[in-house]
Design goal:
Pfam family, one: Ribosomal_L22
Number of strands: 5
CATH architecture of the domain at 10-117: Alpha-Beta Complex
Organism: Cucumis sativus (Cucumber)
Keywords: Chloroplast, Plastid, Ribonucleoprotein, Ribosomal protein, RNA-binding, rRNA-binding
Radius of gyration: 24 Å
Subcellular location: Plastid, Chloroplast
Distance between the termini: 57 Å
Main location: plastid
């Protein structure tokens, strides 16, 4: 099992054992990945696929988790990660003529929706640890550095000619 750090700006919802092929669910998930919450809700309500309803419920549940548990505003939420994995296959037998039976395989999938709060952009500020050698011993300090990327060619940089 891989342990990951919990991000305090992300909220997720997980749906398991959804009776649907993962290929059909991925067709819808690929359309909403990276979009805002409000835009995603409009897209899912208007798409004509059967896979939209369980995904709509998951996105709505993730947004409810974000607003209730973390206090995020729904206008600032963006779908940062959406993935569909294959679940277990439900196997049944269908009775046929003359005592025979045919197998029926119902595929299931698990869907994970991760919403990220964009009002606080954590990529702009990175935390660095550095050590200082002082007479009392080594001291470890944390420093927050602004890591925004400035385009020096278009914002009055060195070689900008007008």
């Amino acid at each position: 099992m891989i342990k990951t750090k919990k991000n305090r700006y992300e909220v997720y919802a997980l749906g398991q054992h959804i009776c649907m092929s993962p290929h059909k669910a991925r067709r819808v998930i690929d359309q909403i990945r990276g979009r805002s919450y409000e835009e995603t809700m409009m897209i899912l309500e208007l798409m004509p696929y059967r896979a939209c309803y369980p995904i709509l419920k998951l996105v709505y549940s993730a947004a409810a988790n974000a607003s209730h548990n973390m206090g995020f505003n729904e206008r600032d939420l963006v779908i940062s990660k959406a993935e569909v994995n294959q679940g277990t296959t439900v196997k049944k037998l269908k009775p046929r003529a003359q005592g025979r039976s045919y197998p029926i395989k119902r595929p299931t999938c698990s869907i994970t929706i991760v919403l990220k709060n964009t009002s606080v952009n954590e990529e702009e500020f990175k935390r660095y640890q550095y050590t200082i050698n002082q007479p009392g011993g080594l001291i470890t300090k944390e420093k927050y550095t602004d890591m925004r990327c400035y385009d020096m060619y278009n914002n009055g940089g060195l070689w900008d000619k007008k």
